[in-house]
């Protein structure tokens, strides 16, 4: 399970996006900070950059990205 955004930065850099790493890092940290058994709902995606980042932050927890 990745603990920091730097752990996944190289993996996610290849995904096209419109936001950049600063928003990705913010959402990664936000997803890590929410309580277990939570759902994150992303409405409308480009290539799934932010969804991937949030899903990786929720890996091995009871949090879900939908």
Question: Overview of this structure, please?
Answer:
This protein is mainly alpha-helical. 44% of the residues lie in helices and 6% in strands. The chain is built from three helices and two strands. It has a two-stranded parallel sheet with strand order 1-2. Strand 1, helix 3 (49-57) and strand 2 form a beta-alpha-beta unit. The radius of gyration is 11 Å and the shape is globular. The two termini are 19 Å apart. The mean pLDDT is 93.
SS element count, helices:
3
* H/E topology pattern: HHEHE
Number of strands: 2
- The portion of residues assigned to helices is 40-55%
Structural class: mainly alpha
Biggest beta sheet summary: 2 strands, parallel
Gyration radius, in Å: 11 Å
In terms of per-residue confidence, which ranges show pLDDT below 50 for 5 or more consecutive residues? none
Mean pLDDT score, rounded?
93
Anisotropy-based shape: globular
List keywords for this structure.
44% helix, mainly alpha, 6% strand, single chain, 2 strands, globular, 66 residues, 3 helices
């Amino acid at each position: 399970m990745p603990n920091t955004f730097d752990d996944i930065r190289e993996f996610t850099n290849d995904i096209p996006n419109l936001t950049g790493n600063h928003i990705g890092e913010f959402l990664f940290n936000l997803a890590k900070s929410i309580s277990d058994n939570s759902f994150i709902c992303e409405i409308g995606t480009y290539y799934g950059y932010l969804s991937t980042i949030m899903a990786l932050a929720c890996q091995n927890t009871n949090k879900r990205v939908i």
